[in-house]
Design a protein that fits this description.
With about 140 residues, the chain is an alpha+beta fold. It has four helices and eight strands. Helix 3 runs antiparallel to helix 4.
Length: about 140
């Protein structure tokens, strides 16, 4: 079984954010960190070279693949900020309809800027996502 490449590292979150060239994106990431710290009551950690995660859980799929993953995470990408959210948390579609300007794929919601979204909706999505993760992967 292949080992998961995205694991928690000791890399400095502040150093990583400082390396984000786009000032608006860098500031949005700093604001998103503060928002997630307040919502989760957890400190951010780097996962791999470019993902900022909060908390963690161990997963094991029916296929036998298993590993550790952050409970909630985001990553500043070249064209967007990717927020890693489950594709099946409570009220996902309803909340996304109220969220603001974004794009989605299976496990991410992509935004260009925090100014484009409703942060109160983001907080609801985060809470519902974390509840979903905790139900799937309860701490033992």
């Amino acid at each position: 079984m292949a080992k998961n490449k995205t694991t928690e590292t000791e890399t400095s979150v502040n150093d990583f954010i400082g390396s984000v060239k786009d000032e608006r994106k860098r500031n949005d990431c700093l604001e998103l960190i503060e928002l997630l710290k307040k919502e989760t009551q957890l400190e951010p950690k780097m996962w791999g070279p470019s993902i900022i995660g909060f908390g963690n859980h161990h997963y094991k799929y029916e296929s036998g693949r298993e590993g550790d993953s952050p409970n909630i995470a985001f990553s500043p990408r070249a064209s967007s900020i990717a927020i890693y959210l489950s594709g099946s948390f409570l009220d996902r579609d309803e909340l996304l309809n109220k969220f603001g300007k974004h794009k989605t794929d299976k496990g991410c919601v992509h935004i260009k800027a925090l100014a484009d979204i409703d942060k109160s909706i983001l907080l609801k999505m985060i809470a519902n996502h974390i509840k979903h993760v905790e139900e799937l992967y309860p701490n033992k």
